[in-house]
Amino acid sequence: MLRLKSTLAALSVSAMLSGTAIAADPIKIGVVTPLSGTYAGIGQQVRWGLELATKELNATGGIMGRQIELIFEDEEANPSVAVQKAEKLFQVSKVDFLTGTVNSGSTLAVGQLAERSDKLIATTVSFADSITGDKCSPNVFRVNAKAGQQSAALAAWLVKAKPQAKVYYLGPDYEMGRSTVAAFKSNVDRVGGQSLGEVFAPLDSKDYTQYFGQLRAARPQVLYTSVAGNDTVRLLTQLQEFGLLEGLTILGASGTVTAQNIAAIGKAVEGFVTGVGYTAEIDTPENKKFVAAFQAANKADPDLYGADSYGLIYAYKAAVDKANSTETAKVRDALRGLAWDTPQGKKTIRAGDHQAEQIMYVVQVTGGKFKIVAQVAAADAIGPDVCTRF
Amino acid sequence: MRDAITLQTRAGHWLVALLVLGGLVFAVVGFATGDTFYLRLATEALIFGGLALSVDILLGYTGLLSLGQALYFGLGAYVSALALIAWQSFWAAIGASLAAALVCGLAGGLIANRVRGVYFALITFGMAQVLAKAVYNTRALGASDGLIGVPVLDINLGLFSVSSASPVGFFLFVLAVTVLFYVLAAYLLDTPFGRLLIALKANENRVLFIGYRTSTLRLGSYLVAAVIATLSGALYPMLRGFASPELLFFSTSGNAVITVILGGVGTLVGALYGSVLLTIVKSVVGSWTEHHLIVIGLIFMAVVVLLPKGLMGLVQPALVSVLGRGSRR
Prior knowledge:
The structure holds 2 protein chains of 2 kinds.
Chain A: H1 2-21, E1 27-33, H2 40-59, E2 68-74, H3 79-91, E3 97-99, H4 104-117, E4 121-123, E5 140-142, H5 147-161, E6 166-172, H6 175-190, E7 194-201, H7 212-218, E8 222-225, H8 230-241, E9 249-252, H9 262-265, E10 273-276, H10 285-298, H11 304-323, H12 328-335, E11 339-342, E12 345-349, E13 356-357, E14 360-366, E15 369-376, H13 378-382
Parallel strand pairs in A: 1-2, 1-3, 3-4, 4-5, 6-7, 6-8, 8-9, 9-10
Antiparallel strand pairs in A: 10-14, 11-12, 12-13, 14-15
Chain B: H1 4-32, H2 37-62, H3 70-87, H4 90-112, H5 118-136, E1 147-148, E2 154-156, E3 161-163, H6 167-190, H7 192-202, H8 204-210, H9 214-240, E4 242-243, H10 250-263, H11 269-288, H12 292-306, H13 312-328
Antiparallel strand pairs in B: 1-4, 2-3
């Protein structure tokens, strides 16, 4: 009997404790990101970036005095899996916020789920314009640069570096390849460049020389391409073998030349130019500090995914501090128009479409490494707000 | 005295009854605790169970290995999503999906059934890849982003209506539909047509010698499987609110084959149990480690080696002998 009483007393004490402890419960952030498969490398950077920021904030008291807890789930780069895992995090783990989705299809599908579950999500990777464009959602934010910003930044640089440039386009023959070329072409037309022609080669083309006749006849100063992976290797080395790189500047999408294929392209990659939202080369004290901390924690350099994910945690902290709450409606209001500091410089979330405005960088390969050649102001790269849903 | 096939079918019916009972208990518990996630996960398991059921009709009864059944699942998902966005009507979505299933199933069946064995597997695989690529590159269908914005709908069933947003309501609805698929498949396979399919699996030449046109039989079986897979797919966007090209990918077809082998080939009910089990294992192991594919691969290997007749091989023989004794008395 005595034992029962003391157990009851202990229970009531612990109940009281847990009652008062609610304020100190951790803030849970769900992360649905690819941890296996083709995109595991991107998911790794997302994870490193989020974990580094979380560790830094937790060491200085977390958010509103509450620690941050990250809960990871493998998205497998498949929207069906992503939605199922996101629902688990929303309903079972009761996360306050969710991020991590990589492919645009997953972000859109999870965004719709968030809207129906009255939760907020943010992507730090997906770049399809539609996410903050015609398929925008009041519950979805994007803190990384969308495809349109990369392309606008490149065009803004082009008009200064080569006014009235004559541009030729070569893209991979599938939907995404065609839409990236169309987007850059409209940017070139907007800034007064001259478009000479375009050609689309099948994915995994072995031989690009069949297009070189057209290319030479058009006499362009600039070739824009959105091929990726091994296609870039073949295209650029074949251009070099045919002596066509002489006097020709190659511009590309941000995925055209990456750490994965730059070594294989060799000398032919020299002078390649692209527009990005982040590069470890950014020469500011904030970025140097971030890169050093990232290297110390993960023994690897951060790329744009790691940096954008790192910045997101600080954006969420700023918003929750401002709202003094983790409630969806209040945090949404706080995120709209929020300006915060990241290693990439100041970012601002545009209230009209939930897209982060940020300085864009134009980088060129010099001596086998990307070097920053220009900065494009956030306002010049963001483009019009086409979201009509809110 | 009943023959072995009838007894086995009877055993299957009992196991389905057990599944329904389990489903009802689960629904009551889920409703009482106000659960959302597990009820909707179980709904998804049943939807993919329907797809696996269609694979089992081909693999377990007709002896045709389809590596592209996702073609019909994805077809159903896209047609249903488009119909729901356009008309917000459940019956319009189901009607459109059924029409698409019949047309595409007939066309696909005529192509695939020209060949047998490994060539059949390759052709079904190829057809699914072609459709997946086409959808992946079609702007009007959302291309690689998929179709989102499928509305939450009320399914009007005459006497009452069920909201696709109600976890327990939609779970019970999908449970009923899945059982309907099972009943339809089990009934068809119990008719002389079904017996001929089983004979076809054993020895196609002999069926030909008795005087049956085997190509028609194979086409019929293919068409039934296509309809069940398409209608299962049509339920998917009602649950999740979107359709994506990944639903047409090989991973979906391959998963359905794994489900059938796990549950027990040629049992029909095994496909449903297999799907429930695989979904639970994936969800639990997936949250536990990012190396979940290795764990699932090991489980699959263990089942193939230790339980060649799948999970149903553990219980069905015992049930058959009990039923057999009962019928002799």
